[in-house]
Amino acid sequence: MAGLQELRFPEEKPLLRGQDAAELENSDTFLLAMDTDWKEHDIETPYGLLHVVIRGSPKGNRPAILTYHDVGLNHKLCFNTFFNFEDMQEITKHFVVCHVDAPGQQVGASQFPQGYQFPSMEQLAAMLPSVVQHFGFKYVIGIGVGAGAYVLAKFALIFPDLVEGLVLMNIDPNGKGWIDWAATKLSGLTSTLPDTVLTHLFSQEELVSNTELVQSYRQQIGNVVNQANLQLFWNMYNSRRDLDINRPGTVPNAKTLRCPVMLVVGDNAPAEDGVVECNSKLDPTTTTFLKMADSGGLPQVTQPGKLTEAFKYFLQGMGYMPSASMTRLARSRTASLTSASSVDGSRPQACTHSESSEGLGQVNHTMEVSC
């Protein structure tokens, strides 16, 4: 265990729950803040139209940052807090940013006609090359949450040459079994659709203790997203198949994600078990596992500062962010790598970083972080 060294992330206070709720309650402010530079597009794909908003233009050989939201949300409800965070502007000024809304989930979407067949999760992934081609992207770095993380992972499996990196929050690589399917059906009979979706987004503890935040999301999910369209997306997500990935070397001809991956989950998230299992199925030399304290089911909303720091580090590891632009995270990492001694057999609670013996600069690792 001599190769293990400790990285300590400086503590950062989570966003106040009241602040989250106040922002969400004022839907005009929440949904329209800092949207003036974004341009909307409806893009034809083999499986129907996709609503996309984009800011910036392709910058040389740099990939675009492409996001995909969770079920029950859209790109605004899922990502506005994160991308409007002050430190995030340091990143986005270097990249074109492209937000994708799942079919019929965008603000003001028309209700699908009777009998409309919502695309399968595989078809949702197969719609994304049309977006890449439309804007002339060479490849993308994907950021997905929940259902969106599943779609982006499937996209990277089918079209690996189009994906340079992935940030997957709250991903569940497993399909729904019969017991899960029956429980979902029963919940749908006894609860409203927004309340059913909230159990996917928040843990039971959050549903009880974070009343203002949960109530705000309940209101936005019920008022902003077309309910009939949401029901179709919800049904399709709960009919998904296993992601069908395995860690290289564990089974013959194992298929896994070839690009660098950062897995993210809150320490109180309903998706925690699924993310841990996904981590066990990915290549440990290219995977970072980030477990965030005080963040719950929506780390991009409750802890945008910590997530921004981790994303900067992820991009730097891919060669896109110069070290001078790193702030708290860079100083913490530099100090710990130069001063930390070897760690014994017990795993530290902060972060373990397993380095190869080939020397500095040649890092071969799975990094597991609690911050």
Automatic annotation (TrEMBL):
Residues 337-371 are annotated as: Disordered. One of its GO terms (biological process) is cell differentiation. Its main location: cytoplasm. Residues 349-371 have a biased composition (Polar residues). Signal peptide: none annotated. It holds the Pfam family Ndr. Transmembrane segments: none annotated. The keyword Zinc does not apply. The keyword Cytoplasm applies. It is found in: Cytoplasm, Cytosol. One of its GO terms (cellular component) is membrane. InterPro entries: AB_hydrolase_fold (IPR029058), NDRG (IPR004142). Keywords: Cytoplasm, Developmental protein, Differentiation, Neurogenesis, Wnt signaling pathway. Contributes to the regulation of the Wnt signaling pathway. Down-regulates CTNNB1-mediated transcriptional activation of target genes. May be involved in neuron differentiation. Belongs to the NDRG family. This is Protein NDRG2. It comes from Canis lupus familiaris.
